[in-house]
Design brief:
The complex is a heterodimer of chains A (758) and B (93). By secondary structure, chain A is an alpha+beta fold. Helices cover 26% and strands 24% of the residues of chain A. Among the domains of chain A are: 204 residues, Aldehyde oxidase/xanthine dehydrogenase, molybdopterin binding domain (Aldehyde Oxidoreductase, domain 4), CATH 3.30.365; 145 residues, 2-Layer Sandwich (Aldehyde Oxidoreductase, domain 4). In chain A, strand 19, helix 14 and strand 20 form a beta-alpha-beta unit. The N terminus of chain A is likely disordered. Chain B has 93 residues and is of the alpha/beta class. Chain B is globular, with a radius of gyration of 12 Å. Classes of the chains: A alpha+beta (758), B alpha/beta (93).
């Protein structure tokens, strides 16, 4: 792991080290409790009946035989949930429409995709619940379906919603369609820009829907009390958001629902929404028993959100010297059965790394008969980057310029414009390119059928609402609590920042994740926001504690607080004039807590702004087998500006993880549907994610250009790393065999077909 | 277009919307100048020009103040001459 550090003036003692994570031992010894590990006395098991059809009107549901089965305690249908008005609520990119959301949890008028939940049964055993599900009789009117985004956009496509009028088009269309929304960002004069170019490349691309591939299926346990108080144990990326969605969907007050954060076995964006939680709560309310629901792997693939597949066209013009003068992109995204693909992100991120005076970026959000898309690591950005970074590679070759140098020539920096309006306010991108240009392997000669490709990526990173508390125990050890689920090592990073701020050893800080009744609101662990925003809350709470510790020391020394400083974990006199006092440790002050004001503890909340974006630049060497079309990854180097690495190994781990998921996205992963719209590969044997033997050691290069808005310079590290791999690998394949791959995945049959096409 | 709502007039704050947002909410006008000392003042000024817009801005957007992105927070200060850009709020994975 190389490090490229710029302008780091602070000298850290704890931040930037790589201690063992607080949750490490329980996880590797099997003691950690995930969503499926919770049980309660009298608990029922629930099973969900799912639609076998991609698109069908539900004519009737007869549950009488199932209800009569001994051991069955309760059955729910979509109509058991309160309905909601049709209205888009909240930020445009992630606007929620609860009319849609309740129908995604459980179908009402129509089943809109294979796997769409129709009913759920709670019974005394899982076997009885499964048998009961088989006894439910559903009469369907099977309808024509559409899977591909281009098919779904055709005028004669079967409509999922007969009254859907495209938003963002004026005047509004007179006829309904599957196009939920059109959006556009533009700046400059596109026609004049292209007219001034020396070289223009326009090309179309397709990408497949891919799943986040988290190892832990969705599962939860709900207990609804006779007093209307409900507790929920759930593995998610945000138990406060689970609480909000679930309460809304079952029609209860947020204050009556307490959500416990179970450990999470991977999320990558896919666990920022709810699926089973509202069903479990409703079944528990109906039966008076605790109810547990666990999805199978097949359930996960068929009924939870992958990220979108897409159809895209990108056109870019450059001068001979490499200056990009114009760029245009058309991005059509599968939303799944309900609106809400990440196409807005895709249009915003597509050209974000580059200074381009004339840009137009148009997106379409399109519904089709597949599970509703959900967030997946830098949602949308990897998809549009596949097209943009591929076209840039072609242009670099046309003008005879090194592809990294082409990117460096046009790289944004603080003050550069964006297509969506505000100027960039941070550096960091050029530094990632330079890190690879300086890498000793970048110019290493390649062998036969081998190729090297580069690509870059952008992600916004996030801020937002977080809360943290810090308490000093009687013996001077420290407890910190946040409401941010620990998906990627945040317990460790929070403990490191607390230890650094307080000046105490990392080992003396216990870092926990509190339930929704024990800490203030925290938004989801997603968007690469937690180390930034929750970290700010932790540091602010620590600073409040330090002020209190100084006050208590001043009481013990009979002096004014201004005569006490906090340094290296001790209260010390500001100078000798204050008195000849020995420094007071946390333990010493905690021992006097009762007589100096009682327990020592503070909470801090923030709606953190000032987040800085992340950039990643990567190169990959591949070898293509001309006989089979198989692509072997020989070497992968990924540089990313992380601002400041709080835990170095976990930052590197995030980068390696993003690259590995990108390799799967590039080479193998896809949803395969049969002619009836049924998913053919709903399991890890047929949906092939990368395994260790597929991969070389991946080298993470941590570039550190600190963000001045964070106490330690954090920018966020979880997402930008998955943006470049698909294009980098496509570019490497082209370099190896002279064939431009324009469709993902670049699986062996597809690569072989490209070779055979000549 | 200008809205004068501050008690002490100072150099105006430039407020900008994306093209799509302005088409929907501000009669396709993308740029405004308002007198304000913080984001609360900016939102109040825009709400006076377009009643109801304030709630939309609070619920649907993030802001970039001189390029630095923030969540919408009333207390966030804006300096005379600042550029305030309302952009779609982003959620990640």
């Amino acid at each position: 792991m190389l490090t490229n550090t710029k302008d780091i003036e602070q000298v850290m003692k704890v931040v930037g080290t790589s201690p063992v994570r607080p949750d490490g031992v329980p996880k590797v010894t099997g003691q950690a409790q995930y969503g499926a590990d919770y049980s309660l006395p009298g608990m029922l098991w629930a099973k969900v009946l799912r639609s076998p059809h991609a698109h069908a009107r539900i004519l009737s549901v007869d549950t009488s035989k199932a209800a009569a089965l001994p051991g069955v305690k309760g059955i729910i249908l979509g109509s058991d949930f309160p309905d909601h008005p049709f209205d888009y609520v909240g930020p445009e990119r992630v606007a929620q429409n609860y009319w849609h959301m309740t129908r995604n949890i459980m179908a009402r008028e129509k089943a809109l995709f294979e796997g769409h939940a129709i009913a759920a049964v709670a019974a005394t055993t899982l076997a009885i619940a499964a048998e009961a599900v088989s006894l439910i009789e559903v009469k369907y009117e099977v309808l024509q379906h559409c899977i591909d985004v281009e098919d779904a956009m055709k005028p004669d496509a079967p409509l999922l919603f007969e009254d859907m009028i495209t938003r963002g088009v004026e005047p509004a269309p007179s006829k309904p369609s599957n196009i939920s929304k059109r959006l556009e960002f533009s700046v400059g004069d596109i026609a004049a820009g292209f007219a001034s170019a020396d070289e223009v490349v326009e090309m179309s691309f397709k990408t497949a829907a891919v799943h986040q591939g988290y190892i832990e299926p969705h599962s939860c346990l709900a207990r609804y009390g006779a007093d209307g108080q409900c507790e929920l144990w759930s593995a998610s990326q945000g138990h406060f958001v689970v609480r909000a969605y679930t309460a809304k969907l079952v029609g209860m007050e947020i204050g009556n629902l307490l959500v416990h954060p179970a450990e999470i076995g991977g999320g990558f964006g896919g666990k920022t929404v709810v699926y089973v939680e509202p069903m479990a709560v409703l079944l528990s309310r109906k039966t008076g028993h605790p109810v547990k629901i666990m999805m199978s792997r097949e359930d996960v693939f068929k009924s939870t959100g992958p990220t979108s597949g897409s159809s895209m066209t990108v056109k870019i013009g450059v001068k001979k010297d490499g200056t990009i003068v114009a760029a245009e992109g058309l991005f059509k995204f599968q939303a799944g059965a309900f609106p809400g693909s990440p196409v807005m992100n895709a249009t915003m991120c597509a050209f974000a790394p580059y200074i381009i005076p004339n840009v137009k970026s148009v997106g379409f959000d399109v519904v089709s008969n597949r599970p509703k898309s959900a967030a997946y690591r830098a949602p949308g950005s990897p998809i549009s980057a596949f097209a943009v970074e591929s076209v840039l590679d072609i242009l670099a070759k046309k003008i005879g310029m090194d592809p990294l140098k082409l990117r460096l020539k046009n790289a944004v920096k603080a003050g550069s414009p964006t297509a969506w309006g505000p100027k960039h306010s941070h550096d960091g991108y050029a530094e990632t390119i330079q890190a690879l240009l300086d890498h000793p392997q970048y110019n290493k000669p390649l062998g036969k059928n081998q190729g090297r490709g580069v690509a870059s990526g952008f992600w916004f990173n996030g801020g937002g609402e977080s809360t943290a508390s810090v308490h000093i125990n009687e013996d001077g050890t420290v407890v910190i609590a946040t409401g941010s689920m620990d998906v990627g090592g945040s317990r460790a990073s929070m403990a490191l920042m607390a230890a650094e701020t307080l000046g105490v050893p990392y080992e003396s800080v216990r870092s926990t994740v509190a339930d929704t009744a024990s800490i203030g609101y925290n938004h989801v662990t997603g968007g690469s926001r937690v180390t930034y925003a929750t970290g700010i809350a932790v540091v602010e709470a620590c600073n409040k504690v330090i002020e209190d510790l100084r006050l208590r020391a001043s009481l013990m020394w009979d002096t004014d607080i201004k005569n006490v400083v906090w340094s290296d974990g001790y209260a010390k006199p500001v100078d000798k004039s204050v008195g000849n006092f020995e420094p007071l440790s946390l333990k010493a002050i905690a021992g006097k807590r009762a007589v100096t004001g009682g327990p020592i503890g503070y909470e801090a909340s923030t709606n953190a702004g000032g987040q800085a974006p992340g950039f990643s630049t990567q190169f990959v060497d591949v070898e293509v087998d001309p006989e089979t079309g198989a692509v072997k990854i020989l070497q992968f180097v990924a540089a990313q500006d992380v601002g400041r690495a709080i835990h170095r190994d976990y930052c590197a781990g995030q980068i390696v993880g993003g690259v590995v998921q990108g390799i799967g996205w590039a080479l193998n992963e896809e949803y395969i549907y049969d002619s009836k719209g049924r998913l053919s590969n709903a399991g890890f044997l047929d949906y092939r994610i990368p395994v260790a033997s597929d991969l070389p050691m991946i080298e993470a290069v941590l570039v550190e250009v600190p963000n001045p808005s964070h106490p330690f310079g954090v920018k966020g590290v979880g997402e930008a790393n998955i943006v470049p791999p698909m294009a980098a690998i496509a570019n490497a394949i082209e370099n190896a065999i002279g064939r431009r791959m324009t469709e993902l995945p670049m699986s062996p049959p597809r690569v072989l077909a490209a070779i055979d096409a000549g | 277009m200008q809205a004068d709502i501050a008690a002490t007039p100072v150099k105006a704050v430039k407020v900008t919307f994306t093209a799509g947002f302005s088409r929907r909410y501000t009669d396709s006008i993308r740029e405004f100048e308002v007198q304000a000392k913080n984001i609360r003042g900016v939102i109040r000024a825009m709400n006076e020009l377009f009643p109801g817009l304030g709630e939309t801005l609070e619920e649907e957007t993030s802001i970039a103040i001189d390029g630095v992105i923030h969540e919408v927070d009333y207390t966030q200060p804006v300096k005379p001459g600042s550029e305030v850009f309302f952009i779609p709020r982003i959620e990640g994975g």
